[in-house]
Amino acid sequence: MTLDAYKEDMMTCCRCSACKFVPLETLKGYDHVTVCPSIARFDYRAYSGGGRLGLGVALLENKIDYSSEKLRDVVYNCQMCGACDVSCKYAMDMEVLEPLSEIRAEMVKHENVPASLTKLAAALKQNGTMVLDAAAGRGEWAKDLAVKDYTREQTDIVFHAGCRTSSDPSLWNVARSSIKLMQKAGVDVGISFGEMCCGGRAYQMGFQSESAEQAKRYMAVLKKAGVKTLVTGCADCYYSFKVLYEKFGLKNDIEVLHTSEYFNNLIKEKKLLPTKPVDMTVTYHDPCHLGRQGEDYIHWKGSRVPGQVIIFDPPKEFRRGDKGIYNAPREVLLSIPGLKLREMDRHKEFAWCCGAGGGVRESNPEYARWTATERINEAACTEAEAIVSGCPGCESLFTDTIKQGSRNLKVYDIVELLAESVL
Ligand code: SF4
Ligand code: SF4
After folding, report:
1. Which ligand 2 atom is nearest residue 47's CA?
2. Which of 129, 188, 262, 371 sits at a 20 to 30 Å CA gap from 119?
């Protein structure tokens, strides 16, 4: 798509500011009412979903140009978390996040991107990963696990660890626990010891063609290996394989599951039995790309009926964020004896972002940590001992932020707690 294709959506914005807040009807109280980290941090309309749509129209009408430093600041101090999109669509039939993606794609074309992100895109092209400071090589995390390489021998299930997990030994326990749980359930699982990047983060940063090229390379490997089901514990990668690849027309019929979905099924089939108590009160953080952005991509080709703002031909079904992956992670946690789950005020499709997305952690680490601190403080209000997530990006940023702050909160992935109960 192009930015121009979303001009009518952008023109539909009525400046109501709903994209800054959790919808009134769903509020739990006076605290935690904002949903957009960017407007909450920078406190100027341009830094909201609606504000950026106004900039999109101004760019299309040549009222501002792409070379401005301030424009770059506004466009890239946004996690692409999609909370604005969901809050807007609570009442409106219009796209918000899609045009924000197209503005970023235009910024890439006009070479006005934070230098740190340009460096990451170059690394993807040269080394096949956007992780610059990898502390470990690909597949090292699985060396002693006796797991097959699916690129050499076919397996029923393929497990994708993701760049962040593979390169950071402090996250290895999640991937290793996933394999051990699958082996315990008798699953024929394989990994690739030369696993590639899915390309999803490049898309979020605006490098759309680089992302699509990487997706083609990855799909060629999966196709050659005859893969039918892919399981991943990374919410970003899950979104790439399930939603982006579908958008690119590349997904074919590969089934994509998050570890929480896959293990929830194994628990229901009694192939995994969580029996050991884990006496802990936790709160669950919905990762943006598993929750509100994790629902199926909908192909729609049509247009607004001329002269009408909200009538489409053919009728358009919108992705509103409420069909994301919310139940499986919670069901897995509640299947663990002794474990108690407390919800934060902002949860499911209205969850506050961890702060890491959209390249923000790399381009503005201070803003990323500020966003994470907001979430950690919200988690602490539940009086939980730990914050649990289903994404290494969230986990890693929460852990680093907690280390630098004063909150005494543990951080886990769902799979780690399940493994404690099962293995
Ligand atoms: S983007 Fe949507 S919610 Fe935000 S101001 Fe515009 S119409 Fe209102
Ligand atoms: S994507 Fe997230 S950070 Fe960006 S404008 Fe929307 S709500 Fe704010």
Report:
1. 5
2. 371
- Taking the C-alpha atoms of residue 394 and residue 352, their distance in angstroms, rounded to an integer, is 11
Nearest CA to ligand 1 atom 1: 50
Q: Over 80: is that where the pLDDT of 313 sits? A: yes
CATH number of 128-268, picked from 3.30.700, 3.40.30, 1.10.1200, 3.40.50: 3.40.50
What is the CA(304)–ligand 2 centre distance, in A? 25
| Furthest-apart CA atoms within the chain: distance in Å | 64
HSE-up (13 A, CA, CB side) for residue 285: 32
pLDDT digits (tens, 9 = 90+) for 203-231: 999 999 999 999 999 999 999 999 999 99
Q: What is the pTM of this model?
A: 0.97
* Ligand 2, atom 4: closest residue by C-alpha: 78
Site to substitute for ligand 1 among 11, 13, 20, 22, most atoms within 8 A of C-beta: 13
Structural domain boundaries of the chain? 1-113, 128-268
Find the 385 Cα to ligand 1 centroid distance in Å.
Answer: 36
Which is more confidently placed, 128 or 293?
Answer: 293
